[in-house]
Amino acid sequence: MKTLVIATKNSGKLSEFKQMLEGLPYRILSLADFPPIEIHEDGSSFDENALIKAKTVAAQTGFAALGDDSGLEVKALAGMPGIYTARYAGEDASDRDNIEKLLSEMKNIPWQRRQARFVCSLALVFPDDGFFIERGFCEGMIATAPRGEHGFGYDPIFYLPQFDKTMAELTDQEKNRISHRALAVRKMKMHLIKEQV
After folding, report:
1. SS3 119
2. Kindly report the CA angle at 140 between 94 and 43, in degrees rounded to 5?
3. Distance separating alpha carbons of residues 154 and 139, to the nearest angstrom
4. Could you give the count of Cα atoms lying within 13 Å of 32 in the half-sphere of its Cβ?
């Protein structure tokens, strides 16, 4: 069985990946399974950052690596927080800090102008330097207050009109059908399956 390293220390993200990749003939590891790996995430786009993560991890572990860079783009904020999603309220900001900052910036934005989307760029890099990039998007709105107990990050304020729920109110099964990460993983699975043939 081949090994695939998910280039993350985020346990919520790792759990999502494991569920979405279930059934593939890969042993799934994460950065937590290795000595500390320094990743200098200094790209100017989701694609660049995902590729930096995957290339660094593949080079240092000798295994295929999957790098994910994802974030939230808010139309009324000209696409911010974008690549700064995880550290929007500062380098060591918590999910709550980031949500509070975003809600504060959106407080005078009327409902009809609160469109947003989650973006996910996935980079799959093999030890021989071959790589693939796939993307997924999930459209929604920024809610006026957090709702729901599931998920992580901005899920409690990302409202999905088709469900009349925030992302944090969905079950894992629902989220893993429609999320930006799920859509990108679905495309990436084809490359992982071909690699096994």
Report:
1. strand
2. 55
3. 13
4. 10
| Residue 132 · residue 191 · CB < 8 Å | yes
2-196 has which fold? Answer: Maf protein (3.90.950)
Considering 33, 42, 47, 69, which one is annotated as catalytic?
69
In sequence order, what are the beta bridge partners of 134? 122
CA 35: distance to chain centroid?
23
Q: Tell me, yes or no, if 69 is annotated catalytic.
A: yes
Alpha-carbon gap, residue 121 to 136, rounded angstroms: 7
Scored b (16 or more CB within 10 A) or e, 36-51 reads ebebeeebeebbbbbb
The whole-model pTM stands at 0.88
pLDDT over threshold 90, residue 74: yes
Chain-centroid distance of CA 178 in Å reads 13
Q: What is the pLDDT of residues 83-115, one digit of tens each?
A: 999 999 998 899 999 999 999 999 999 999 999
**Model confidence over 24-73: pLDDT tens digits?**
989 999 999 998 998 988 899 999 999 999 999 999 999 999 999 999 99
Name the region of 153 (left: φ>0; alpha: ψ -120 to 50; beta: rest). Answer: left
- The structural domains of the chain, with segments of one domain joined by +, span 2-196
